[in-house]
Design goal:
The complex is a heterodimer of chains A (112) and B (110). Chain A is mostly beta strands and 112 residues long. Chain A has strands at residues 5-7, 10-13, 19-24, 31-37, 44-50, 53-57, 64-68, 74-78, 87-94, 102-103, 107-111. Chain A is 0% helix and 51% strand. Chain B starts with a strand and ends with a strand. The chains are: A mainly beta (112), B mainly beta (110).
Chain lengths: 112, 110
């Protein structure tokens, strides 16, 4: 089991563009959470998906949206990118809500 | 609103010295508290959670509801403990939203 995988590893976009980040959970996990980690900060919770529905959401604008597929993998979409969206985006998976979360390596997004 | 405060960005201790990483929280209900660790070039991983009441790699943390704290302690620091440590809080029950602190970098000096 490769654990939680994320793609791509790095991404460079320009302001106003849209981006999609992908996450495959650890085998056997059914819940995916997404976090944004700016430089020097702790991860900030964006949202959590369970049974293909968004179950909890942090303080992020509607430009941030997501999706969970029947195989439990997930996508994070960000529209109308701003310079401030530059960050490391982390995906974490767990079994049923927040039991132990297993984190992926992250996707580094740079917005120019 | 839930909030986690880690007052120290960097904590430097000598090998063999005691370690205490501070964490204070703000939450109106009954929270669940965690410590996560990130070693150099590795993923963020769970170190311990308060409901387990375990000692992991010699680290312990006690939830003090009166002081709203969840400090991480180890009696004798080792070089391999050098890492970034994050305190995190979530609401108990239902679908949970996790709030992380800003992290403390622990540097153990040989």
């Amino acid at each position: 089991d490769a654990g939680v995988t994320q793609s791509p590893t790095h991404l460079i976009k320009t302001r106003g563009q849209q981006v999609t980040l992908r996450c495959s959970p650890k085998s056997g996990h059914d819940t995916v959470s997404w976090y944004q980690q700016a430089l020097g900060q702790g991860p900030q919770f964006i949202f959590q998906y369970y049974e293909e529905e968004e179950r909890q959401r942090g303080n992020f604008p509607d430009r941030f949206s997501g999706h969970q597929f029947p195989n439990y993998s997930s996508e994070l979409n960000v529209n109308a990118l701003l310079l401030g969206d530059s960050a490391l985006y982390l995906c974490a998976s767990s079994l049923g809500g927040i039991n132990e979360q297993f984190f992926g390596p992250g996707t580094r997004l740079t917005v120019l | 609103a839930q909030r986690v405060t880690q007052p120290e960005k960097l904590l430097s201790v000598f090998k063999g010295a005691p370690v205490e990483l501070k964490c204070n929280y703000s939450y109106s209900g009954s929270p669940e508290l965690f410590w996560y660790v990130q070693y150099s070039r590795q993923r963020l991983q769970l170190l311990l959670r308060h409901i387990s009441r375990e000692s992991i790699k010699g680290f312990t943390a006690d939830l003090n509801k009166g002081e709203t704290s969840f400090h991480l302690k180890k009696p004798f620091a080792q070089e391999e403990d050098s890492a970034m440590y994050y305190c995190a809080l979530t609401n108990s029950g239902g679908y949970q939203k996790v709030t992380f602190g800003t992290g403390t970098k622990l540097q153990v000096i040989p």
